Each structure stands twice: as structure tokens, then as C-alpha cells.
Automatic annotation (TrEMBL):
SMART domains, A to Z: HDc
Keywords (A to Z) from UniProt: Hydrolase
Gene3D superfamilies referenced in this protein's UniProt entry, alphabetically: eoxyguanosinetriphosphate triphosphohydrolase domain-like, Hypothetical protein af1432, putative deoxyguanosinetriphosphate triphosphohydrolase like domain
Entry keyword Hydrolase: yes
Transmembrane domains' residue ranges: none
The HD/PDEase domain, residue ranges: 59-260
Protein name, as recorded: Deoxyguanosinetriphosphate triphosphohydrolase
InterPro entries in alphabetical order: dGTP_triP_hydro_central_sf, dGTP_triphosphohydrolase_C, dGTPase, dGTPase-like, HD/PDEase_dom, HD_domain, PHydrolase_assoc_dom
Species per Swiss-Prot/TrEMBL record: Reichenbachiella carrageenanivorans
Length: 447
């Protein structure tokens, strides 16, 4: 059984004991939040697609605004649960509800830092390059089967863990608690004994390159190991709250964005939110609000608060199972409004996620990411692994890589590591920088 005292360790990944200094004004978990805010991967989220491509309307969310809102919801969930957990376990009197809120808030803030440009289609585009591009097939013979699984199953969650644990001394150096709460999928891409009934094994949370880092996190916190032969663990209990915060936000906020773009009517949006509110929906209060946009904003705020309350209650109902590593479901599948959220999800797929502007963005993203990967990986492989074919064209493409990427490639010890440096670079691009780089390399634009 996992232990809350150990699970809430404030020790930092990459720090030696002598590096640790107490700060009387900020907890270690609050420092995690600040470090993420000031990091380059987080900053780049301001120009990455959430659902709608490169919007010029100020009410449409980017990955950055989405992440800030998920963090806000996560803090509330963490504080609610933290208060109940501390009351249940007297030995946790050294902690406060704000510590729980800070861990969930920081992990939620970082939850999308590994996502490539062009939304979730960007993840699939990277995987598809290795799966289907003929030039990529030569890489398969130069990497292990486990490493190949990483490439053909590119995962933003695993990429995020990589970013948060790279360059230990120069990197972000988060606490073990925050890193584990961030990790919704504590297993590798090559896990063979995958349990489809466990939500935490639906995807993977780290690449082979970061396996030792994740094992260190799991060992430090005492995460329950689920397999004796493979590295697969039960989630850190607070990871369920990070997942729930994300589920709550995208369910409600994507609906609001769809309304703002005219894809969903005011009546449809209002009725979904009213159904979530149930008996707490008072339509007469909307009469004093001037615009439909403001009305939806008010309903959205109260709906999110309702979902936070219901999710906190569901968590504590299952807290014992969660701590034992037996519970492995989405909390938002176990609350009174679950049927409404399921209906909203089906509606959003048809009316929002399959709208023409979203599909156009996805199609463009596939072309751009495939083109960038092909050009850069071919240049890198010719330079380091097939030098007799390193042409002038390859040299020009290679020199387009930032100097820090070239430096890392010079020190890469294998083809697998070289490829990861390129996927790091491309997945770290913003939508705009990827479009600009692609247009320049294809000769479409020189500006």
C-alpha cells in the first residue's frame, strides 16, 4: 500500500541533499509551479493549438490558456482532497491542503508541455512518419524494438516527462511528487502485459530513454509496481486529480469555444451547462445579464465548480482503493453528471472536433510535420551514419537546426538518441514556427 507521507516527498529530481535549501516563504511545491511558468516548454504553449487552429478571436483557447485553467481547477481539487486526506490521516499534520493543491496545480500546469504543434493530430503525425514514410523505415534497422515502439507511438505525455527530467542540473528539477502527479501513464511504450481495464495503461508516460528516471521517481515515492517482469506502476494518487482537471476543462471549455465560433448555438450550449447544474440552475438569473456570451461565461463557471465538488467527493469515496493501487478509472466517469458529460463528448466530436476548420488544421499539420521530420532526420542520418551520402542539400538543412540542437546531436551516442533530439526540436515548435520553417524549406516563402 502506498503511503501519503512518502508520496508527498518534497525532494527534487536531480538535486543532491546538500543542494536543498528551505524557503520560508514558498513551499517546494509552489516553487515547482513557478519553475514551470518560467520554462521555455510552457511558454511555447501560447502558440500551440488546443482545438481550433491559430485563432484570431480572443476567446478561443490555446494550449497555454487551457493549461492555466486546468491548473486552476487542479488546485481546487487538490485542496479539497488534501483537507479530507489530512483529516483522515493524523500523521500528515505537517502538510496543509495548500500543499496538495500546489502539487496538483503544478502538475496540471505542465500536463501539455510535451504536446507538439497542431494539437493531438501532431502526435499522430509524428507516429505516422515512422510508421508510413518509406525513408523512415531505414531507422528501424538501427534501433532496438523497444526504441522503435517509442518512435511509432509518439506520446505527448512521455515527451512531457522527458522535457521535465532532461538536463537535471540545468533543467527544471521538479519535486518527485509533482513529477509523479504529472505522470498519468506510468508505463513504457513497449509494455507487453498491458491491462486494458486500467486507464493508466491506455497510453504510456515515458520513453525508453527516460526509463531509469521514471524508476527513480517511482522508487523515491514508493509507487506500487504492478508487474514483476516489466516497469509498470500504479499511478501516484494525485495523478487522478490532474486527469480530472483536464477532463473537466476540455469538456466545458471546448463547448464554450464552439459557441464562440458559431459551431454550437446558444441554446445548445446553455442546455448542456444547465443539465450539469441540475437543481442549481436558475434561468431567471440569466435575465439580468446583457449578452449571450456573458450568460454562457457565468454558466460555465458554475458548471466547473459543480464538477469540482462532485469529483472531490468521488475521490474520497475511493481514496482507499486509490492508495492500494487497485483503483484505475477516470474520476469523471463516476460522478452524478457522468451521463451528461458522455452526451456532451459525443456531441462535441460531431459538431466541434470534426468541424471543417479543425479538419483543415489536422490535414495541414500532417503535411508540415512529415515534411520537417523527413528533411531533418535524413540530414542528420547522412551526416552521422551515412557520411558518403551527405550532400550539399543535407548540409543546408542541418545548418537550419539551432546551435543547441546541433551540440546535442554531436554528443548523441546512438541513432535512437539522434532521432529523439529531432523529435524534441519539432515537437517543441509552436504552430507558427513550424508553418514558417516548412514554407521556407519547401521554397514557398523566404520571409
Amino acid at each position: 500500500m502506498m503511503n501519503w507521507k512518502k508520496l508527498m516527498s518534497s525532494a527534487r529530481f536531480g538535486d543532491s541533499k546538500e543542494d536543498k535549501k528551505a524557503n520560508p516563504l514558498r513551499s517546494d511545491f509552489e516553487i515547482d509551479y513557478d519553475r514551470i511558468i518560467f520554462s521555455a516548454p510552457f511558454r511555447n504553449l501560447q502558440d500551440k493549438t488546443q482545438v481550433f487552429p491559430l485563432p484570431d478571436q480572443d476567446f478561443v483557447h490555446t494550449r497555454l490558456t487551457h493549461s492555466l485553467e486546468v491548473s486552476s481547477v487542479g488546485k481546487s481539487l487538490g485542496k479539497n482532497v488534501g483537507a479530507a486526506v489530512i483529516e483522515k490521516y493524523p500523521e500528515l499534520s505537517h502538510l496543509t491542503p495548500y500543499d496538495f493543491g500546489a502539487v496538483v496545480g503544478a502538475a496540471a500546469l505542465a500536463h501539455d508541455v510535451g504536446n507538439p504543434p497542431f494539437g493531438h493530430s501532431g502526435e499522430q503525425a509524428i507516429s505516422d512518419y515512422f510508421l508510413h514514410n518509406e525513408k523512415a523505415q531505414k531507422i528501424k534497422t538501427k534501433v532496438s524494438s523497444e526504441e522503435w515502439h517509442d518512435l511509432i507511438r509518439f506520446e505527448g505525455n512521455a515527451q512531457g516527462f522527458r522535457l521535465l527530467t532532461k538536463n537535471q542540473k540545468q533543467g527544471i528539477r521538479l519535486t518527485f511528487a509533482t513529477l509523479a502527479a504529472f505522470s498519468k501513464y506510468p508505463c513504457s511504450s513497449s509494455l507487453t502485459t498491458r491491462d486494458n481495464d486500467r486507464k493508466s495503461q491506455k497510453k504510456h508516460g515515458y520513453f525508453r530513454a527516460e526509463e531509469s528516471a521514471f524508476v527513480e521517481v517511482a522508487s523515491q515515492l514508493g509507487l506500487t509496481k504492478l508487474s514483476t517482469s516489466e516497469e509498470a506502476y500504479a499511478r501516484h494518487p494525485l495523478a487522478f486529480l490532474v486527469e480530472a482537471a483536464d477532463d473537466i476543462c476540455y469538456s466545458i471549455i471546448d463547448l464554450e469555444d464552439g459557441f464562440g465560433l458559431g459551431l454550437v448555438t446558444f441554446e445548445e450550449t446553455r442546455d448542456f451547462l444547465a443539465e450539469i447544474l441540475g437543481d442549481n440552475y436558475y434561468p431567471e438569473k440569466l435575465d439580468n445579464i446583457a449578452s449571450d456570451k456573458e450568460k454562457i461565461g457565468v454558466l460555465r463557471a458554475v458548471a466547473i465548480n459543480t464538477l469540482i465538488y462532485q469529483t472531490s467527493q468521488a475521490y474520497m469515496k475511493h481514496e482507499g482503493e486509490i492508495l492500494n493501487g487497485e483503483f484505475d478509472k477516470a474520476l469523471t466517469d463516476l460522478i452524478p453528471t457522468t451521463p451528461t458529460l458522455k452526451k456532451l463528448s459525443d456531441f462535441s466530436i460531431k459538431r466541434i472536433y470534426q468541424s471543417r476548420q479543425v479538419l483543415e488544421k489536422e490535414a495541414a499539420g500532417y503535411e508540415i510535420i512529415d515534411g520537417l521530420l523527413e528533411a531533418f532526420i535524413e540530414a542528420v542520418f547522412c551526416k552521422f551514419y551515412n557520411k558518403n551520402k551527405y550532400s550539399g542539400r543535407h548540409k543546408s538543412v542541418y545548418r537550419l537546426l539551432p546551435s543547441e540542437v546541433q551540440f546535442k546531436l554531436d554528443w548523441a551516442s546512438s541513432p535512437y538518441e539522434s532521432v529523439l533530439e529531432i523529435t524534441d526540436y519539432i515537437s517543441g515548435m509552436t504552430d507558427s514556427s513550424a508553418v514558417k520553417q516548412f514554407r521556407i524549406m519547401k521554397g514557398i516563402s523566404l520571409a
